[in-house]
Design brief:
- The protein is of the alpha/beta class.
- It has 2 domains: 2-41; 68-225, 60s Ribosomal Protein L30, Chain: A.
- It contains 8 helices and 6 strands.
- The strands form 2 sheets. The protein has a 3-stranded mixed sheet with strand order 1-2-6.
- Strand 1 (77-80) and strand 2 (83-86) form a beta hairpin.
Length: 233
């Protein structure tokens, strides 16, 4: 009997086991609470960063819209879905790649907001030239075909932007001739829409995957159409 009493006396009391269990549960609860608080803090920081990002984006858009306010009011420029459309008569005369003074002045006013917009995204500005489907008129000694005319006009706009202060390594020119019309070439009105120069932000080579993803979204916000109403090319 004494041996049984000795064995029972050496067993831990039930309250001690219960206490150890509760201590373990409290520890687990504390860990979960700490994790939850940390997760909420991270969410709050991410939300704050996202709000700041959106506010900065809004400021860039406002700056661009302010730069376009006067030409928008005068009908020289349109702004739809983030796309800038410049009246063709503002840029070039018939069969010419020489930038007119009014067009140069307008492009100069866009350099500052465009530079700010591109700098925030570490992107480049692609200036692309397009024409309608009509061939170059016979006797034109300056351009052999629509490819050459579209290339020269894109280069002219690119150089004008650089002369107005845009960094040369932030902008480049491309030519598409009559290969990518925005509408079918069926009459003078439709052809005037296809005679244009577009400006669109694109990712830099070697940009991170995230930057490329956001750039693809942003491209549609800043792409610009410039219809050239009086050009035969």
């Amino acid at each position: 009997m004494s041996e049984i009493d000795d064995e029972l006396s050496h067993e831990p009391p039930i309250w001690a086991i219960f206490g150890d269990l509760m201590t373990g549960l409290v520890g687990v609860f504390v860990l979960i609470l700490v994790w939850a608080l940390g997760f909420q803090l991270e969410l709050a920081q991410n939300l704050k960063q996202e709000i700041q990002k959106r506010e900065a984006e809004q400021q860039r858009r406002v700056a661009l819209e302010q730069a376009l306010a006067d030409p928008l009011a005068q009908g020289r420029v349109t702004l739809r879905d983030g796309r800038i459309g410049i009246s063709g008569s503002v840029l070039f005369a018939l069969n010419s790649s020489e930038l007119q003074p009014e067009g140069r002045e307008l492009l100069s006013s866009l350099v500052k907001p465009l530079t700010m917009y591109l700098g925030e995204r570490d992107q480049l500005l692609m200036v692309s030239g397009f024409t309608d489907d009509l061939p170059i008129q016979k006797g034109n000694l300056h351009y052999q075909d629509n490819w050459e005319l579209s290339a020269q006009r894109a280069l002219t706009v690119t150089r004008a932007l650089i002369e107005a202060g845009m960094a040369p390594d932030w902008v480049f020119a491309a030519a598409f001739g009559d290969q990518q019309p925005v509408v079918p070439n069926v009459d003078n009105a439709s052809r005037s829409q296809n005679r244009r120069v577009e400006m669109a932000p694109v990712p830099r080579a070697g940009a991170s995957q995230n930057s490329n993803s956001s750039a693809a979204t942003d491209t549609s916000e800043l792409a610009s159409d410039t219809s050239e109403r009086h050009s035969s090319g």
